Structure formats: C-alpha cells, structure tokens
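Recall the central idea of this unit: under ordinary conditions, the amino acid sequence of a chain determines the structure it adopts. In this exercise we apply that idea directly, starting from the sequence alone.
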Amino acid sequence: MHKVLFDCDNTMGLKNCDVDDGLALLYLLGRDDIELLGVTTTFGNSTIDMVYNNTKNMFNELNINNLPMMKGAPSGEDRQSEASEYLVSMAKKYPGEITLLATGSLTNLLGAYELDNSFFDNLKDIVLMGGITEPLIINGKNLDELNFSCDPAASYGVLSSNTKVTVLTGHICLQALFGENEYKRLMEDSSKEIYKYIKRKTIAWFEFIMEEFGIKGFYNWDVVAALYITHPELFDENIKKLVSTPEDLKKGYLVIDSSSNNSYEVNIPTKIKDIDKFNDLVFNAWGKVEV
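Accordingly, the structure predicted from this sequence is:
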C-alpha cells in the first residue's frame, strides 16, 4: 500500500485550463493500492483561489467527504499556509512512509521545509511532474514549461533536497497522448458514470488543444507522474546529476552535468515502456471511482 499526499493545481473543467491534475486525482482515487492521505492545492494552472474552489467543487461533485483538502500559499513570496502545515504534520505522523506527488508549483513543499527542516527527511520519496531538458515542441510550436518555473526557488529547494526525487518531464509525457481512440473508449462504455463525467469535464480542453496546436488530443501530463508511483516498472530508471540553479528553473530547465562536484541526483525517466498497458491501467483505475 502506497501512502500518498497529492499537491496539485487542479483546474479540470475551467475554461482554457488543463485537465491533467483532476485526471491524476481520479487515478489515485481508483487505485486499491493507494492510501490517499490528503490533497493540498497550489497555484500554477491558475490562481490559488481558482484552484482551491475548483477542487472543492470536484470533491462535491464526486461526493468526496472523508479526504482532507487544504489551501496552499498564493505565491512564493509567503509560502506558509494550511497546506504546508498539513504536509509537515503528515510527514511527522508517517516518517519514511509517504510519497509526495506534486504536479504544480512547489511552493507548499518548500513552505513545509521552512516550517520543519526535517520535512524532506521524513518523506519516503517525492514524485514530480515538470521540467524540461530541451525545448518542448508540440506540432512545431514551443510550449513553455510551467510547474518548476512558477516558483523557481522552491523548485530548486525540492530538487536539491537530498530526498529520493523522480521527475516526469514534459518530454516523457508527450508519449501519453489522450487522443481520439481514448475518447472513443470513454464513450463506448456507457455503464460507467465516471467516464461520462470525465468526457464532460475534458471535451472543451480537447477542442482547445486542437485549435492551439492542431492535434486531436491532449497530453496526460500529471497522470504519468501518478502512474509512476504504482508502476515504476513501466518506466526506465535514469539517474542524472543536475546543476540547475534557481535562475535555470525560471524557465524550468533541468541542466545535467555528470562531471560536476556541486550536483544533486534526480531520477528522470525517458520512456513509458508499454503505452497500451499504461492506458489500460488508467482506464481501470478511473472506472472504479464512484460518481
């Protein structure tokens, strides 16, 4: 059983905002081997108020009544919040047992460390979605990195924390396109209300990405990171020495230098070994969520 805390910038269902955090949450909720200890909200896809209220609405729509959900800090200027306090309390309660999945700005994580310098040491590991090692190109258009660049100082603090950190970058997530075949799969099973919910919450984003990038589908960025927790065997292990500074992270760049004496090690998988199995696991988990 994996004990997980999920720190996210969920905007699934908001106009012209990404849906991946919400889909990652549904994956976690549908897994029998995940004990989700709480959700903490952060900024990134939108403001902290928009993210928090949207996640609260999602909880209400799905009748989630027994899962703590905390509001994070609004910016990197003051990182203290109920979210950072909750992260500290859970890490202290279950030292060495918790995987912290973070898919937005990393402000709450550094805020937790500022409250308790043993915070990172108390975690089992950290799984992140974010960062790029080269320009991220989608159908000829450059896509700016979002998550690490939102609060580069916090990103640096987390990446260099000497905790076991795995980063699912934008590049590997391009292998997880949620396209026409996946939508067809949603619509073919009318017996599952959750599939109808997902389609209703994501179809506008599907159409928005078609207009912006000319592709029929969107990328399941944060779902890749969530699935890594339960099935790391579907990914390669790729330990790299990073020398990224906060300045580098203003654009989300992960700078690799294997010869540096001032580096920190991070696992940066580059491949999803079986995308069909990946999609089966995602759909099976989603299908177990009650609406």
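The chain is about 40% helix and 15% strand.
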